[in-house]
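Duplicate of earlier report; PKP2 protein input re-posted below.
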Amino acid sequence: RNMSSAGPEGRKKMRECNGLIDSLVYYIQGAIADHEPNDKATENCVCILHNLSYQLETELPETYTQSIYMQKRNISSNDKTPGCFGTRSRKVKEKQQDTPLPEEKSNPRGVESLWHSTLIRIYLSLIAKSTRNYTQEASLGALQNLTAGTGPMPFAVARTVVQKANGLPSIRTILHISHPTVKKTAVSLLRNLSRNTSLQNDIAREVLPDLVSILPESVQGSDIVAETAASICYTLYNLTQNSSHNARLLLSAHGLPKIIAISMNDSNMFSKASRAASVLLYSLWSHTDLHSAYKK
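Output:
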């Protein structure tokens, strides 16, 4: 577990170690099957997999990037960006959301397991069944890592979490637990998921009222509170930017007074949350059909 957080070279060596990832996944599967999701060894295994999924998209060996991004390369003949992971235009990124991954292998091995739907379902199971904060946080964090990029892999993982594995109810439950770092990681994961336009309505229907309910009345307190509030605002921004219906949902959940209060907080410590709330307000005002409701 310590070694897995030793940086890019350490992660690379551990990903390449024959049988290591498979053994970790095998152990966790056994623990879940035996109804023992709270033991320390399971926590260690999940924390290792969490660390090994960090920066995965950018650190994958070329043999994987070639197959994963093969379909993507024909999106635009005008895309001059070198390599697979450079900065791309918004247009290209949007098209990538519709670029499917190659068909999943039924028996993944090694590094392939890290983004496979089997492990995604294991993380969601641990989020639902474990009561250990570190295990929950590592499971959420691994999914956050896997959905952090802009290529087809993160969007495929996001679709698995939201639509194929029905993971939103488990994540929604986590939003209401008291441990602040677990809640912060859950919100960061939702922020990543909400960038996928094809999933925004599903996410809004399932968790938008919950996000509003955990949004603080003000951001006085710790840095974690401020960062969580900022992430919530950016998630709500993603969910409402292109949907007047979702903006109305936010309004009916009594989110507007909270967002206004956060936007007016001028403390330097909480400027990130204030800025995020201001961006959200500006976006909400773009729905002209809701102006009268806003004023009321």
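The chain has two domains: 1-63+108-179, 196-295.

Merging into the original ticket.
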